Amino acid sequence: MAFLDNLKRSTSTGGIKLRRSGREVEFKKMPDRFSLRLKHGTAKTADALQSLIGSMEVSIRHIESLRVAQMDVFEIDDRTKLDNSMEILRASPHVDVVSHIYRLGENVSSEVIPTGIMTIQFKPEARAMEREKILEEFGLEVLEDLDFLPDGYSVKTTKQSNINPLKIALKLQQYKEIRIAEPDIAFKVDFLYQPANSLYKLQWYLKNRGNQLSSIAGADIKAEEAWDITTGSRDIVICLIDDGFDLEDPRFNVPGKIVASKDFTGNAFTPTADLDFNGHGTACAGLALAEEDCQGIVGLAPKCAFMPIMIPTDITDRLFVAIFQYAMIQNADVICCCWKARAEYFPLSTAMNAIIQKVATEGRRNDKGCTILFAAGNDNSPLDGVKNDMQWLNGFAVHPDVIAVGASNSRDKHSFYSNYGPELAVCAPSGGGSNARSMVATGTRDGIGANSQFDGTSGATSIASGLAALILSVKPELSSAETRNIIMETADKIDPENGQYKDGHSLIYGHGRIDTYRALKRAIQS
């Protein structure tokens, strides 16, 4: 009676509810489609099918072939004749399986097809005679003993099966001898781009599945979804201004990758003179745009071009101006600065403020402006304010034309060191915090070495610069202000309790943790 009640309740709503890996799933029947598998060969057209089994006295058309399931999908013009047509097909000696097509719940794009195969797991106490009786009752043929599932079998419906696999599973799930009864279904996937780099599985900030210690699923920037849209363009240049780069690293040393490199330390920038395997700049560049080369890590924007600018640890206002002028003249699209003044209180000079404004509004081709990002800093202090009777000011990060980037961790919480304030634009993943993970970055040539763990707002800013480059890869006509707004408006409002967002902004997270996929979708629609 329980089965009949469940079946009536399911079919009355147009669907069948089954447990699938412990979760209830509703299969809703599509009224105008069916699928079939022939015993031999395939039927890739309506004419081919009807020449084999005879006229069906109804108009049908072939929709698609499913290679793995070896099934063909057809659509019928008169849905009132669907069930009768399927009975005609089942009676044919040429047909192996005929099935309705279902969708999962209300999702119209989630078509699934029972293939006629099922997974059954008996309870250990079920005797062999009881198991055989159940298989015989439903006309099920054993295909395989499942060594990865104790007391589990792969079985197949036959001509003696008098109801479809979904209804068989629904009934079997009521049997005391059965632990699991699930129909095998054919389903479509949206391929989410996953690099083959050897350390990619450790890059939780790109795709956090929650399967690593001290991380939670979803605490990431949605890179895989975004990479189905773009992995970047060589026409878009990320300029990283930093302390040193290993330009012989295979993740950078590829045709067309490096453009207009410049050393402002007073030396000639040559690959052999400026190798820095474990430098801060190498790590930042890797997070932003390391190529997919099947070793080490991959950057967020691996197909974008790289403009490395090397600077000394002591610079002047004038040198700063010259650096930004150079980046603008050389057509940088994104400028990433993962550093700040050592002084706690550091207002910019008029010249520095002015050059940032000029580059941000008049740089790039057609005066669209360069997108400029600065790290918020790692002092756990205000970007502009007083803490413990000390005045703090990061003049670079608070510039109105700059994207100031803070850090969140593998649990979507505030990285304890990350600076904060109303000037903070967004945050991006990095290490930091109790029960959180560090980030893996480009270190030695094999990706594993003294600098393979990399935290701080430097890492967060490098990742955010990759997002800016991906946005411009899909919509190069965007201005720097438009790019900045897209990054902020599409950010995820993580940790709302501690974030205390007011008018969409949090003092510790800015507008939230960047979401690459949402940002690219917004850019395309803009």
Please outline what is shown here:
This protein is of the alpha/beta class and 526 residues long. It has helices spanning 2-12, 46-53, 82-91, 128-137, 165-172, 223-227, 280-289, 317-329, 350-362, 457-474, 480-489, 496-499, 516-525; strands at residues 15-20, 23-38, 60-66, 71-76, 95-104, 111-122, 140-146, 152-157, 178-187, 237-242, 262-263, 305-310, 334-337, 345-346, 371-375, 384-387, 390-394, 402-408, 426-429, 439-440, 453-454. The chain has 13 helices and 21 strands.
Write up this protein.
With 526 residues, the protein is α/β, with parallel strands linked by helices. The chain contains 13 helices and 21 strands. It has 2 domains: 2-187, Peptidase S8 propeptide/proteinase inhibitor I9 (Alpha-Beta Plaits); 200-525, Rossmann fold (3-Layer(aba) Sandwich). The strands form 4 sheets. Strands 1, 2, 3, 4, 5, 6, 7, 8 and 9 form a 9-stranded antiparallel beta sheet that branches. A hairpin with a 4-residue loop joins strand 3 (60-66) and strand 4 (71-76). Helix 8 (317-329) runs parallel beside helix 9 (350-362), helix 10 (457-474) packs parallel to helix 13 and helix 11 (480-489) crosses helix 13 (516-525). The chain is elongated and about 85 Å long. The two termini are 56 Å apart.
Give the termini separation. 56 Å
- From the alpha-carbon coordinates, what is the Rg to the nearest angstrom? 30 Å
Helix content: 10-25%
Q: Could you name the ranges where pLDDT drops below 50 across 5 or more consecutive residues?
A: 1-13, 190-195, 271-277, 444-451
Mean pLDDT: 86
Question: What is the beta-strand fraction?
Answer: 15-25%
CATH architecture of the largest domain: 3-Layer(aba) Sandwich
Count of helix runs: 13
Quickly give the structural class: alpha/beta
Total strands: the figure is 21
**Main β-sheet description:** 9 strands, antiparallel
| CATH superfamily placement of the largest domain | Peptidase S8/S53 domain
Please give the CATH class of the largest domain.
Alpha Beta
- Might you state the CATH topology name of the largest domain? Rossmann fold
Number of domains: 2
